[in-house]
Specification:
2 strands, mainly alpha, two-stranded antiparallel ribbon, about 300 residues
């Protein structure tokens, strides 16, 4: 069953011959239904009988079967994914740098800056939810999410760099890049096999991880202190490592989505969804990396 949580659900994943594939949009009013399993059928891009983008009467005909095929100018390419991802991540970086420079984190202004950061995070969450339940990608929503997420990351990063350890932000960025490069190499070499079991395990583990983090936050709010201790000390380090590993697994799912979208002729606009998923995953990894390094620096 597809998760209703946009962090866990990647519109487009289906199971075709044991692998995660790129699923077609379902014609349901109001967005995707939680009960509609994307794993019930094969990959809709795999053949002309089920591919909704292969029935365009104006598309060129297949010379062997006579089935209409989608014009190559309208399909997603790796260049589309790279350019959209660069735009989305560039927006995150730009707004993060601006918020770092324009929102001071000195003790006199820390409360105000934190308030703006929390507000930006909530707006980013709302925009991501709206996009996740839309049947088509909206570049405005995706770039808006990236902009507000950047504000949040900029303030948090500035505070960590100021009050915990100078240079930890650069280390977190380099660590995130290293995870991305490592997973990409492992995926291309075939060391990571994205199949049904892998996808189900990652989603279940991520949901359990998030539930534990929410429980820890609630205990911290109502009982004070560090809650259940999942955000500091030895447990904090352990869960930081687990969070980074889960982020790496989601990267593998994102790479599979991109690969299947290109293979089965997804429309070019779907490149925005690929960029959206990659950006959310990289933000996850960066935050977990920043938290882990902060704990390690704080214990020194």
């Amino acid at each position: 069953m597809r998760s209703s949580n946009p962090v866990f659900s990647r519109r487009g994943f289906s199971r075709d011959n044991g692998y995660a594939g790129f699923n077609a949009q379902q014609p349901q009013a109001g967005g995707p239904a939680v009960g509609a399993s994307p794993y019930a059928t094969g990959n809709p891009y795999a053949d002309g009988a089920t591919n909704p983008y292969a029935t365009n009467p104006y598309a060129p005909q297949d010379v062997q079967t006579g089935a209409p095929q989608q014009a190559r100018g309208n399909v997603m390419t790796i260049d589309d994914v790279v350019s959209r991802t660069a735009m989305t991540l560039g927006t995150v970086v730009l707004t993060a740098v601006l918020s770092w420079l324009l929102l001071p984190v000195d003790p006199a202004n820390l409360g105000k800056s934190y308030g703006i950061a929390i507000g930006a995070a909530l707006v980013a969450l709302v925009l991501s939810l709206v996009q996740s339940f839309k049947r088509t990608p909206s570049p405005a929503l995706i770039l808006g999410y990236a902009a507000f997420e950047g504000v949040f990351l900029g303030v948090i990063s500035a505070a960590v760099s100021t009050y915990i350890a100078d240079g930890v932000v650069i280390q977190a960025v380099l660590g995130t890049m290293a995870v991305f490069a490592g997973v990409l190499v492992a995926y291309k070499m075939g060391w990571i096999r994205v199949n049904r079991r892998f996808t189900g395990f990652v989603i279940a583990a991520a949901m359990g991880f998030m539930l534990l983090m929410v429980a820890n936050l609630l205990f911290a709010v109502f009982a004070g202190g560090d809650g259940l201790g999942f955000r500091s000390g030895g447990l904090g380090i352990l869960f930081g490592v687990i969070g980074i590993i889960l982020g790496a697994c989601f990267l593998a799912l994102d790479f599979k989505q991109v690969e299947d979208g290109i293979t089965y002729g997804a429309p070019r606009e779907e490149a925005w969804l690929a960029a959206f998923g990659l950006t959310m995953t990289l933000v996850w990894i960066y935050l977990e990396m920043l938290r882990l390094l902060s704990i390690l620096q704080g214990d020194d």
